[in-house]
């Protein structure tokens, strides 16, 4: 087994929130599903988002200079698949669910657990991926009781049950 295969297998054991990352601007409207998102600092509020350098949308995100991290709820497993489906045209992906915009103009998923509307501050190319450092401009938090995580190559719902 190669070190790369071992790395991928070990990373499958690291549970991650599932998000749809979106952008809109001069380069057009694009989005993709990601689990490689994390907090960098709260002063100023900054997130890190990783995208494959070979992604059809990579250059468009860079040109637009803005993105929104839409954290998915447990009800969004199908939407995650839509934004991971390379055979769908970008505009088709946004036909699913309801979208709005905040400060950056990037699409915000109306039913997301949380949305972080950001401007891209810096990009670094690391191996096969672009690492975007994104300064948060606005945040929207919902009352969704359960989030969606990816662990051991499967989706799982996490959170609390709604009291009756």
UniProtKB/TrEMBL annotation:
Ranges where the Flavin reductase like domain occurs: 11-157
Gene Ontology BP annotations: pyrimidine nucleobase catabolic process
The keyword Flavoprotein is assigned to this record: yes
Flavoprotein listed as a keyword: yes
GO molecular function, one term: riboflavin reductase (NADPH) activity
Keywords: Flavoprotein, FMN, Oxidoreductase
InterPro entries the record matches: Flavin_Rdtase-like_dom, NADH-dep_flavin_reductase, Split_barrel_FMN-bd
Superkingdom, taxonomy of origin: Bacteria
PANTHER family: FLAVIN REDUCTASE (PTHR30466), FMN REDUCTASE (NADH) RUTF (PTHR30466:SF1)
Record-given protein name: Flavin reductase
Organism ancestry: Bacteria, Pseudomonadati, Pseudomonadota, Gammaproteobacteria, Enterobacterales
């Amino acid at each position: 087994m190669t070190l790369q295969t071992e790395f991928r297998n070990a990373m499958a054991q690291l549970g991650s929130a599932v998000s749809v990352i979106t952008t809109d601007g001069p380069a057009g409207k694009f989005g993709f599903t990601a689990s490689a998102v994390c907090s960098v600092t709260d002063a100023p509020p900054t997130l890190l988002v990783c995208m494959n350098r070979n992604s059809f949308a990579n250059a468009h995100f860079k040109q637009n200079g803005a993105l929104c991290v839409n954290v998915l709820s447990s009800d969004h497993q199908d939407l995650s698949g839509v934004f991971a489906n390379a055979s769908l045209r970008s505009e088709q992906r946004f036909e699913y669910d309801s979208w709005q915009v905040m400060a950056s103009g990037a699409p915000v998923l109306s039913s997301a657990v949380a949305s972080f509307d950001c401007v891209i501050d810096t990009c670094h190319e690391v191996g096969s991926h672009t690492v975007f450092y994104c300064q948060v401009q606005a945040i929207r938090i919902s009352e969704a009781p359960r989030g969606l995580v990816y662990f051991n190559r499967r989706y799982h719902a996490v959170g609390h049950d709604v009291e009756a």
